[in-house]
Amino acid sequence: MEPDAFTVIVPGASRPIGRAVAHEFGRRGATLALPCYTDWPESTAEMEAEFHRAGYNFMSVFCDLRDVKSTSAAITQIDSSLGNIRVLINNIERGGMPVVHGSYSHPHNSDQWNLEFDTTVKAKWNLYQCCLPLLKRSGGTVINISSIAARIGRAGPASYLFSDGYSAANRAIFSMTRGWAREAAPEVRVNEVMLGIINGRHGQGTRGWGLLDADQRRDIIDHTLLKRNGSPQEVAELVCYIATQAHYMTGACITLDGGFCLGSEPYMKLPAGDISPET
Fold this sequence. Notes:
This protein is α/β, with parallel strands linked by helices.
């Protein structure tokens, strides 16, 4: 499946992960459909200028993916204007980092829990439901982007970055991926990429990472087997591979976390044992 033959829907392309994914497909000649929301106007303008300079064929569609009517109207517009929708990169989420927002009990966080679920779960569901008939027609694929917060919750070194609601919402994505793979088969493949600490998402370049002290940052890196955070480009390369090359994969969840979930426990050298040849 060559990207220059189809349209790819990439929400969140104004932010680092979505931007890198859109670039990866755009460089390969895919047509980019970019649902946008009004909360990042400067980033959206920067994204559009960047994609114009790169010479990509793209269309920005302003909508609220948390609302199914707005989502349906956006997908109808994309289909009528661009057609041949083959790939949905379900990269839409919202998570309030505890180091930034503090407790849900604070007055300023009264809507935070609902915002995290509506954006991280409901918006993905809306996009999938509205795109599914078109993807079945084209023989397409869905890739849900989630977080290792689904596995570790608000615990360990990453507890400053993952809230309870965000963790629970990402666990829901894991369930939806498996259910959608069953529902959409055999015409459509549905897979998930579960991300660890990625720069521009929870790592360097975010407000939350900047608020951590040196010891807190070191704890996160030390807990990661590869001793570094990931990059948006590494995410983009994996996502593009799954979309265009992994034709026998569906219902899978691929963890891209540098070994964070495995933790910092050392792999111990095998002891010599207590049995000698004489015994």
